[in-house]
Amino acid sequence: MFAAVAALATGCSSNPFDAPPPTIEPAAPAVSPPQTTPPAGEVMPLAGRAQAALFDPRTASLVVFAPGPDPQAAATLTVFGPSGPPRQVSAPGPGTALAGDGQGTAYVSTRGGYFTVDLAAGTARRVAITDASGTDFTAIARRADGHLVLGSADGAAYTLATDTTVAEKVKIFARVDAIVTDGDNAVVLDRGQTSVTALGSDGKTQQALRAGEGATTLAADPLGRVLVADTRGGQLLVFGVDPLIERQAYPVPRAPYGLAGSRNLAWVSQTASNEVIGYDLATGIPVEKVRYPTVQQPNSLAFDDKSGTLYVVSGSGAGVQVVRNAAGGR
After folding, report:
1. Are 254 and 229 in contact (CB under 8 A)?
2. DSSP assignment string, 253-264
3. In terms of Cα–Cα distance, which of 214, 303, 222 is closest to 252?
4. Quick one: pLDDT at residue 15?
5. Is the whole model's pTM more than 0.90, yes or no?
6. In contact, 44 and 56? CB cutoff 8 Å
7. With DSSP H G I counted as helix, E B as strand and the rest as coil, what are the percentages for the chain, rounded to 5?
8. First vs last C-alpha separation in the chain
9. Which of 22, 64, 96, 131 has the fewest CB atoms within 10 Å of its CB?
10. What's the pLDDT at 13?
């Protein structure tokens, strides 16, 4: 018996970390039911199927990202400014994820590199990363020092040294599905491993933690917390970043998915019921403060801390919901 086991062992990789990491079926948002309650606030029309959104303080604009209708089609950014009709900016090719610098520039990951988008001018240009022409980048974020961090479909995280060169690459994931940053640290989400992993300012791996039963999205708030939606497990998870540690876990039923952080409240959408909830995290356990009916399929959230405006972006083409003074009289 021992010989048989020994023979089997010698047939395996000598280094267990060379093997692909074990994974589960990635979780996903619920398919939202038809709206039965009018959404709070106002709703603006939006063409296409939105995948991500952010608010840019410099231009006071909501930026909504939608990939093309097929994998080879160009991605588009729809920019809702403080006045006038929304503007569409076409990327020079397909795109996969959205990030911003808060200073008027948006970034969209793509195969071989990324696009930089000047939101005021409405222009976009492609930036190729050295020795990465065949890499399918699936996630992107910007650190406080201006360096970008990208993730790939084959499970690597790239911290850039310049706009085009890589300072550090770590390949320990099944797939990099999302990245957020806090200062010069980054946190990587892997849906297949339902895990979050911290990368230090040098781009190297720090801590890695399991994130519920099926984590799908993450967001960073202005107070240094990282929010994670455990869609399969029905939880809001709250992590500190340096070091990475789970600080709060709170039940949120009905397939939580969309997330946005703000100074006062953490915002979570429930895709199975077309609702969004604002939680106060200050007491150490999330406390529900406000709840609103939303547009159908509330997959993406963004928040403007200056005006207190919450944006809920439908993933099914039901438009962009604008809830002003969303936190109420706090």
Report:
1. no
2. -S-EEEEEE-SS
3. 214
4. 46
5. yes
6. no
7. 5, 50, 50
8. 69
9. 22
10. 36
Four-CA torsion 10, 16, 17, 18, nearest 10 degrees: 30
Report pLDDT for 194.
98
CB 61 within 8 A of CB 81: yes
HEC-encoded secondary structure of 75-144 = CEEEEECCCCCCEEEECCCCCCEEEECCCCEEEEEEECEEEEEECCCCEEEEEECCCCCCCEEEEEEECC
Burial (CB < 10 A; 0-12, 13-18, 19+), residue 49, is middle
* DSSP state for residue 16 in the 8-state scheme: G
Over residues 24-66, the pLDDT tens digits come to 999 999 999 999 999 999 999 998 889 999 999 999 999 999 9
Per-residue tokens: 139? 């996630």
Q: Which amino acid is at 177?
A: D
Query: Which residues partner with 103 through β-bridges?
Result: none
89-147 pLDDT tens trace: 999 999 999 999 999 999 999 999 999 999 999 999 999 999 999 999 999 999 999 99
Q: Which residue has the tokens 């083409």?
A: 317
Q: What's the token pair of residue 182?
A: 């806090």
Distance from chain centroid for Cα 3:
49
> Which two structure tokens, joined as six digits, stand for 145?
């020092």
Are 218 and 229 in contact by the 8 Å Cβ rule? The answer is: yes
Q: What is the reported pLDDT for 7?
A: 33
Tokens representing residue 78 in the block: 């729809």
Cα distances from 204 to residues 129, 178, 199, in angstroms, run 19, 17, 5
Q: Cα(159)–Cα(142) distance, rounded to whole angstroms?
A: 10
Token reading at 27? 């979780």
195 in Cβ contact with 205 (< 8 Å)? no
SS3 11: coil
pLDDT at 227 over 90: yes
Cα-based angle 189, 130, 158 (whole degrees, multiple of 5): 15
